[in-house]
Amino acid sequence: MASRVFNEAPCYIGGEQEDSKKGIFLPDEIIVEVLSYLRLTPRCQQSFWSCCLTSRQWYACAIPFLYERPYLYGTNFDPFVATICPSVLPRTRKSPLARHVRQLDMGNLVYQGSKSLTARILGRVKIGLVEFVAPQASFALNCFAPLSKSSNLQVLDLSLSLERVPVLSLLKCLAHLQNLEILYFPRLADTKIDILPEQWTWPPKLRGLHVINGGIPEEFLFNASGLPATLDTLSLLRCSGVTESAIWHFLDTLRSQLRVLRITRVGGSRFDCLDFILGICPNIKQLSVPVNYATAGLFFVKHNLEFLELTSYYETYSDNGVEPMDILDAIKAGSVPKLRGVCYPRSILDRSVSIREEHSRLHHLLLGVFNGPRQNEHTLRSRQRSTTLAWMAKLNLIGGWIWEPNYDERSEVRCR
Predict the structure, then answer these.
(1) Are 170 and 150 in contact (CB under 8 A)?
(2) Partners of residue 263 on adjacent β-strands
(3) What band does 228 get if pLDDT is binned at 50, 70 and 90?
(4) Measured CA distances, 65 to 5, 10, 88, 150 (Å)
(5) pLDDT at 1 over 70
(6) For residue 52, which of 359, 316, 44 has the smallest C-alpha distance?
(7) What is the 3-state secondary structure (H, E, C) of the chain?
(8) Is the separation of the CB atoms in 310 and 294 below 8 Å?
(9) Beta-carbon neighbour count of residue 144 at 10 Å?
(10) How far does CA 373 lie from the centroid of its chain?
(11) Which residues have CB under 8 Å from 142's CB, separation 6+?
(12) Is 368 exposed, middle or buried (0-12, 13-18, 19+ CB in 10 A)?
């Protein structure tokens, strides 16, 4: 049924009452306001489609919502392509619906389409495109040309693409994206980075840089330069091939501007390799690090950290990792006076009764210090106090929370 959404031609297909006395006329503004309350979920597309069948007026109001964020998967991809780019011939009239596409998420597609077809789609929707998620197998260098012309693009996610990209080609594309704010880095084809400083061209408004698939060589962190002053969010996830020294060098170039930092794996590092991270980055407000890579030494420097997430994806926990008692002592000593939310791995809490008791004490201490609302505690218990760093910061959640692994790191970073 959902595949019918993109099957019809871009014309009105509903019927309208001839006698205006039989119905109540609603201004377009009211209809648009009603439609705006529909949640952007896969089910809402069928609702928007039904609205398009109501009348000419409802069609005109609902069609932008229908194509604003298309939910694409295997069976409805071909009808979508037939609607947005009906022909490869340059003289063929372009579809007027292409301008309505704002968020194009092709992350659910694996073998549908081709690399040339992805480039064609990007060429048709480039005018209004604000967010793009590349497909896994049908994205390549030929897509950079239309992508670089998407002047309104704000979010670019290339992390799912299996195609390894030369870093110089990527930088040339990014130089044209003046409004880009969030970048999910692709896998790089370069084993060695030999680029001149003037060739490092980054979008001037870039705020977030996320490397979530480990597809960068160590030399990238050593040689990257020219990062904009607006960059305040950095994620280095699953970068097992990157050593501790490369991370320290990269963080040192961003030390005063970082506000959010996530690190999951560091190749060949000691259990205390991230203890000095608060000293290197004095302005961090949100921090996520593996519990095995930090100890009580993390809090030796007084810091205005607000939210802390301790993760445990693949590592085996050792007695050297930071514990809830270490965080309790740091709060009482005044080392982290603004710390209001802490996430601790469930896998470790389940192993020890004493650690669970310490975590409970930490939760009540934070609620008492920041006068956390009572409903927070009830919500935590009903949901087993499970959350992530992104949700803690977004909802300003106070207390001791429980972290559980989500191996789709994109969803944690995106806070969806």
Answers:
(1) no
(2) 236
(3) very high
(4) 12, 14, 26, 20
(5) no
(6) 44
(7) CHHHHHCCCCCCCCCCCCCHHHCCCCCHHHHHHHHCCCCCCHHHHHHHHHHHCCCHHHHHHHHHHHHHCCECCCCCHHHHHHHHCCCCCCCCCCCHHHHHCCEEECCCCCCCCCHHHHHHHHHHHCCCCCEEECCCCCCCHHHHHHHHCCCCCCEEECCCCCCCECHHHHHHHHCCCCCCCEEECCCECCCCCCCCHHHCCCCCCCCEEEECCCCCCHHHHHHCCCCCCCCCEEEECCEEEEEHHHHHHHHHHCCCCCCEEEECCEECCCCCCCCCHHHHCCCCCEEEEEHHHCCHHHHCCCCCCCEEEEECCCCCCCCCCCCHHHHHHHHHHCCCCCCCEEEEEHHHHCCCHHHHHHHHHHHHHHHHHCCCCHHHHHHHHHCCCECCHHHHHHHCCCEEEEECCCCCHHHHHHCC
(8) yes
(9) 19
(10) 29
(11) 115, 116, 119
(12) exposed
Q: What is the pLDDT of residues 117-170, one digit of tens each?
A: 999 999 999 999 999 999 988 999 999 999 999 999 999 999 888 888 888 889
Tens of pLDDT, residue by residue over 181-210, are 999 988 887 677 777 777 888 999 999 999
Q: Say if residues 99 and 82 touch (Cβ distance below 8 Å).
A: no
* Neighbour-count burial for 128-139, b at 16+ CB within 10 Å, e otherwise: bbbbbbbbbbbb
Please state, in angstroms and rounded to a whole number, the distance separating the CA atoms of residues 199 and 271. Answer: 37
Pairwise CA distance, residues 356 & 344, whole Å = 10
What pLDDT does 16 receive?
47
Taking residues 389-412, report their average pLDDT. Answer: 81
- Token pair for 312: 């445990």
**Number of alpha carbons in the 13 Å side-chain half-sphere of residue 407:** 2
d(CA 326, CA 355): 11
Average pLDDT of the chain? Answer: 83
Higher pLDDT residue, 310 or 315? 310
Measured CA to CA, the distance from residue 68 to residue 36 in angstroms comes to 11
> What whole-number distance in Å separates Cα of residue 257 and Cα of residue 66?
39
Can you tell me the distance from the alpha carbon of 209 to that of 213, in angstroms, rounded to the nearest whole number?
A: 13
CA 126 to chain CA centroid, Å, is 21
Question: What tokens were used for 183?
Answer: 């970048």
Instruction: Determine how many CB atoms are found less than 10 A away from the CB of residue 361.
Output: 14
